[in-house]
Give the backbone structure.
Amino acid sequence: MRRSRDPRHIYGPNLAPMVDVVLVILIFFMASIVFVGPEWFLPAAIPAEASQSEREAADPYALPDPTLSLRVLASETGPAVSGLGAGVVPLAGFEAHAAEQLRGIDPEAINIRLSAEGGVTWQHVVTVQDVLTRLGVRNIALDAP
Amino acid sequence: MIDVVMCLIVFYLLVGQLASDQRSDLTLPRSAAGDETKITQAAFVNVRLEGDTLQLDVDGSPVPLSQLGRTVRAAPAVHLRADASLPYERVSPVLAELRGAGVRSVRVVAEQAMAPFGGDR
């Protein structure tokens, strides 16, 4: 016996809930991709020789090192930077300070050696490197013990 | 429509998986400057802290610190992906190990920040 088909009815599974679920999954994946942002690459040298203070300890008559040694400090008021001009500058104000100190100097002729004391995070060091890179300094070295 | 949506889901799933594998679940430091050029066949050194232990991997393969130099020596460049919250004193031994292997420069990997910034991030 043949089953009669009513043209007013749609036979087969209802796809509406599946479409809803699939669209929600699609939106989830699209949103999660957005959070993975693009990457930058900041070149940094790893100096082979000893630092100026180590050389001075070995030879008190050593000539001044043409490299600027910047140190990122972990002060009570937050991270700070010393070594560029006089005094210690909070990291938040380092860009303006560095721009002032490097005014009139060819930034590509400057060598900077960057070190950090305990309690300073990698982000703080990269922030200093970022500021110097934006000011045109190309020769930046990360100090290693 | 279902076919297209399914294809899109598979695409985003694969891209998301590849991206998360490469980043190795790291929170990269943010930077407003840098170079977008990726050097082909460069070694990606991922550095993160699990508990109190420093975990290193090169292109996804775990490597002890003492073997790091030997592992990356042949690579044309070294990309250093360290977690933003790592203390610098945990990253500097990695730099020292690379220096010991004759590596004279690294490319610090950061996430692009949209605008210049300063301060404690």
User: Anything to note?
Assistant: Chain B has one domain: 27-112.
